[in-house]
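User: Fold both of these, please.

Assistant: Here is the first one.
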Amino acid sequence: MTHQIKSYFRFLWSSKNRHGVHSPFVYNLVTQCFNDKKRYPEYQVFDLYRKRLLKNSEVLTISDFGEGSRVFKENQRKVSRIARVSAVTKKRQRLLFRLSRYLEAENILELGTSLGMGTLAFSLSGKEKTIETVEGCPSVFKKAKEGLDTFSCGNIEMHQMVFSDFLNINDKKYDIILVDGDHNGERTYRYFQSLLSHVHNDSLVIFDDIYWSKDMTATWNKIIAHEQSIVTIDTFQWGMVFFRKEQRKQHFILRI
């Protein structure tokens, strides 16, 4: 926790808004997507789904394949508590929806379904899109599937397996990849290396919780330095990587 607090103050000191961005691509991303204030009707569906989960007192037995939780000490957890503590925030859920639309993503991969809030955002961003989502925990997978079968556009392929197994049997390319489910730095870097064969020039890879620990932050810095990471954006919660070979290598620290 001390690492996160210190990192946040450094982030506030170093971060900029759109006025400090000297890249047309990133400036347009910030002004047209990050800062898009339109009230999309899909947001109401997101809120309805969230409220449904927050009222669900069912207890799930959790099999955790990542670094575990700083909040939960037991593997018996209420759905409502998971939704309140571990799920993607309302602000970030809406940003996933806008990113999918703005980047005109057609094929999306999510590593870490959790209760499906991010998955739903991708799904409702366009019926023509294909979303693949991977969750290791059987009970969480089952609960997410129940909700997504009701609320989504029917464009989701769900996989109940660990991330490494999925990546080993898959050779597809994706427009957006969200990595949200393992806070181990060494494994996260291995995921990044594996994902390089699943991206193209215009792909976006998002890493969640880059300041979870010193280990995760060190991994994020290795990802920034990688020769194939051309445009990287630090939003504190997320680290974003673009592979646009036509641009010079740049790193941005942005408040969103």
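And the second sequence with its predicted structure:
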Amino acid sequence: MDLERLNLALRAILSSWPKFKRGFPWRSETDPWRILLAELLLVQTDAAKVSAEYEKIVRALPDPQSALSVGEEGIAELLRPLGLYRQRARWIVKAAKFIIEEFGGSVPIKYEELRRVPGVGDYIAAAVAVACGGSAAVLDVNVARVLSRALFGRDAPRRYAYDPKLRRLAGQVEWTRDLLCALLDFAAKVCTARKPRCEGCPASASCAYFETRRGA
């Protein structure tokens, strides 16, 4: 029953995606390195800020070998507008070195292999795998919020990544790149952390959170 309700909500979100869709340059990428690079840049950073710098960054770092050639100092300077630039530079160089040494310079697209790359956690590995046409259970703070509200009528717990119910549900979703992007946009524009726009929400008919607020 939970999965049926969840699928109804996700289908409603995906079908209404054009109404709240955001346009980011990395969403049209097919190169796994560029997709991975975008995910590393998005950690703790507003997507609009990354979008403004993205093309300049991928021109300078088109592949793992170029990241080693530019080096930490050069990458840090390149990433200065995004903040956390020294930390990000270390991530990128370590990831690039590992990819060259372990995978011959080709970014893996399977979740289990991506998870081995330094600096790549559960969410980034899953997001890259899904963006490259694979399957993985995607769960970040935004996904967790939408799933928890839709099915349980409440916000996700602070330690959402360790919640067995949320992890099980995320694992049952048939993830695609479009669905993930639609869900992230929905979380940013409609099902926001504060003051969610429940009235007029496309998923309200299948949402326990909406029912709870309506009955309050």
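The domain at 2-22+137-215 is CATH 1.10.1670.10 (Endonuclease Iii, domain 2).
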